[in-house]
Specification:
This protein is of the alpha+beta class. It has helices spanning about 85-90, 95-100, 110-115, 165-175, 225-235, 250-270; strands spanning about 120-135, 135-150, 155-160, 180, 205, 210-215, 225, 240-245. Among the domains are: about 85-180, Double Stranded RNA Binding Domain; about 205-270, Ribosomal Protein S5, domain 2 (2-Layer Sandwich), CATH 3.30.230. The chain is built from six helices and eight strands.
Length: about 270
Amino acid sequence: MSQTTQGKPAGQGRPAGQGRPAGQGRPGGQGRPGGQGRPGGQGRPGGQGRPGDQKIYGGGKPGGQARRPRREPEVEAWIPKTILGKRVASGEITSIEEIIQDGLRIQEAGIIKKLLPDLKSEVVDVGIIQKMTSNGQSTRFKAIVATGNENGYLGIGQGKSKQMRIAIEKATNQALLNVSPIKLGCGSWECRCDQKHSVPFKIRGKGGSVTIEIVPAPRGLGLVAGGKIKRLLELAGLKDAWTTAKGSTPTMNSTSKAILDCLRQTFSQG
């Protein structure tokens, strides 16, 4: 059994300001539940939103309420747990050089944030770790993060987790714990200035199969290095240097360790 529906004649609509009579739905038995339409002659007034106190977010119709405010990320307050952290929080220790000279071990990332508030963090490399287990295939994420203030401090850390965000957070905390001071200077015989734009002498570092050598350069030359290696040297505060890298340099885990080992020698030997 087929039902026929009748539409409105072409070019004709409802008269202005008039709705369907009360109790009547659309033709053909189709309409709102209960067969009820809007009361006759009543519709939504022009320029007004939905009736009642219903909130409309995301702009909506004219006359609706404003967009929902964006939630700001909550910053957790640092609560020191170690003796060194309590000394830093109380103001007894005011520089990271004092910690290094006393040979103390930093076990809280909040200590570095307190003493070096101008640190910048940057994700150097991300990857996926997959292995086969008795329960099936296991997938995890790996991240390498570099932290530096572009003025003589650099730290590199690595983190792993099932979620990328957690892996980056772990790598950032590890990079803060690995922050090391770097001695800057001018060791180039072509320049012989007293500004801290390069390394004071030739240094060499090794990490895995990668060996990196940094040679002081005159002012204005720039950093002669690859993309990621150049960015790590910029975070450390170097502006002019020659570099030589040997080994499997695309492996950023070994390359970052070699750079950190290389730059640490400036402070230990100098």
